């Protein structure tokens, strides 16, 4: 049994649920090389994603200085198309 770092392998469905996206989106991210995966088994194999690879992908999506606070709305200019 492989115990080294106790890195759990997730299915595509589990990854999709974790990211709250569709499995199709996960397949596209894997195909584009954004999420690393392993193919386990014969033929095409079952796709599995390590939790650490998923965490690395999520971290790479973070924008620096991105806070959860929303920007204040921009002041609106006059509506030129309306006659006043």
UniProtKB/TrEMBL annotation:
Molecular-function GO terms, alphabetical: DNA binding
Residue numbers spanned by region Disordered: 62-84
Biased composition range(s): Basic residues: 73-84
One Pfam match: HTH_17
Family matches, as InterPro entries: HTH_17 (IPR041657), SinI_DNA-bd (IPR010093)
Location of the Helix-turn-helix domain: 9-62
Protein name: Helix-turn-helix domain protein
């Amino acid at each position: 049994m492989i115990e080294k770092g106790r890195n759990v392998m997730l299915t595509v469905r589990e990854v999709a649920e974790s990211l709250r996206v569709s499995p199709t989106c996960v397949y596209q991210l894997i195909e584009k090389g954004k999420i690393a995966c392993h193919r386990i088994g014969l033929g095409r194999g079952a796709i599995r994603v390590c939790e650490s690879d998923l965490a690395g992908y999520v971290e790479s999506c973070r924008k620096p200085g991105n806070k959860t606070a929303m920007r204040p709305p921009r002041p609106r200019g006059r509506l030129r198309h309306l006659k006043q």
